[in-house]
Amino acid sequence: MLLAIDTSAGSSVAVVSLDGVILAERSSDDPMRHAEVIGSLIAGSLDEARVAIADLTGVVAGMGPGPFTGLRIGIAAARSFGVGAGLPVHPVVSHDGIALDAYATGRAAPDDRLLVVTDARRRERYWTAYAGLDATGLPVRTRGPALAKPEDLPSSEAVRFDAVVVPAGALGRIAALLLASDGVFAGEEPLYLRSPDVTMSTGAKRVTA
């Protein structure tokens, strides 16, 4: 069993079996209350799935792209849960989950080109381009993740899919597919794609009379 967590847009948590069955999934589309809701989403998903922590074999962390403040909450929750439960943490690109969900639900055909778009705030958008599913059922990423102004998003014949929540169930399914095929997970570094809003001080400012 895998516990998947993502806060790159809204907040989403799911329990997914290693054969890709989503046993429970809960989410909030509020992009500002990650810290307030993530604990209850985790507890609620485990209760709904009737899965004990001891039954889990791994934790899946959505690594973005996402704004600094929100994204780090989900990654920290996944890593903390993994440390506390003695479980490995599997990093997955959040947009891959959106793409897989779009293909799996028929909102995009398996061979459609797809443009996944999420809000990056500051009047910007995160985007990633895909070219269908590969032989193992994983979305094929062709460009991105990247950051752009809305007017500068790639213009193509791709099906555009804007999302306000990353489906954690789909992230869990991606992790299950990667584990089954010895695939390569995402890197350990979060995909912020820009500097945080707050910067460290360079030292005390001089005070003049």
In brief:
Helices cover 28% and strands 29% of the residues. With 209 residues, it is of the alpha/beta class. Helix 1 crosses helix 2 (68-85) and helix 3 packs across helix 4 (168-181).
Average of per-residue pLDDT values:
93
What is the count of β-strands?
Answer: 9
- Pick out the low-confidence regions: 197-201
Major beta sheet, strand line-up:
3-2-1-4-5
CA distance, first residue to last residue: 64 Å
The major pleated sheet works out as: 5 strands, mixed
Which range does the strand content fall in?
Answer: 25-35%
Rough shape? globular
Question: Helix fraction?
Answer: 25-40%
Count every helix, treating DSSP H or I runs of 4 or more residues as helices: 4
Radius of gyration: 18 Å
Order of SSEs: EEEHEHEHEEEEH
SS-derived structural category = alpha/beta
